[in-house]
Amino acid sequence: MQHAPLITDQARFRDLMAHLAGETSLALDTEASSFHRFHERIGLIQLSNRKDTWLIDPLAVTDVGELGTLLGSESGETVIHDADYDLRLLKHMYGFRVRHIFDTLIAAELINEPELGLASLMLKYFDIKLDKRFQKADWCKRPLTQDMLDYAAMDTRHLIALRDEMTARLKAKGRWDWALEEFDLLTELPFQAKEDELPGFLRIKGAKALRPKELAILKELHAWRDQVAVKLDRAAFMVLGNDVLLSLAKAPVNNLAELAAMKGVGASAISKYGEAILAALHRGLATPKDQWPRLERPKRHPRDPQLEDRMKRLKAMRDKLAIDHELRPGIVAANHLLMDIALAKPATIGELLAIPPMRRYQAEVFGPELLGAI
Asked: What is the pTM of this model?
């Protein structure tokens, strides 16, 4: 197998952008450092046309602005598998807006492939077995080995051919317009205003079950850990695991010996951070009661038997439609969309379309039966 060239200087990058300027389809993937590092960033960019593959080192090529121009072209299409993460990362790091997307994962969902992973699809369609050894590698560490580069190149090398296979199947099933609608929505997502996110300590799984006093301890421990992780540029869980933070919040220790006896706290953590962990713990314990974090509990609405009945009928109809059309139930209508429909009680396709998560193809193809179920 021929190795994909690694682009590490500005002049070669500029030449590549000029070479690819007229392409109608380009396959794209990124390798990021999110598993290992606190500061999430792209460590490698893979590009393929129908014949060749190139790897771009964004740590060496410091100005990749021309790639944004290429991906934002009105005439070109960018093929990605599971595009959402890559699109958000490209927007976050470079401000790039990818104009026209073909997401092979979404296409696979719409033709009801039983396995949606890229490795499974490559094996099924081309009898190609992808090497997944480096999925959790640190792509911002240098040098990158040749095995890592070969692994990365395979993620885009056959992606346009997969796109062609998927396109044929989408059109044969009459679902090409469905795919186009989903792809158009994808390009907008990274640029939509986010709802206010929860503070980091509340996003830890299990945090919302803690009492306010325990949350005060967790908040201080989380803040300390983030400071260390930022300084080291290391993923926070590598400093101290979430399970340890939760255990300390629920059952605070009194000294280093008790801390060292805890599961998940090794000798290295004690020698490096032991005193700092205890200090954060004591700050949490000393938090005045009026400053304890308090979670707003969702408002409880009185039971509405009619709403429950509508929801039950809608779910039954959705599940029947999914079987009839050989689709995953979520493609017909996810549960949260069904609840919105049950609450809104639309009487027409137009009113159904006015419900924000509703896709046009969902309203047109499945709308009459869903309205009937209301």
From this structure: 0.87
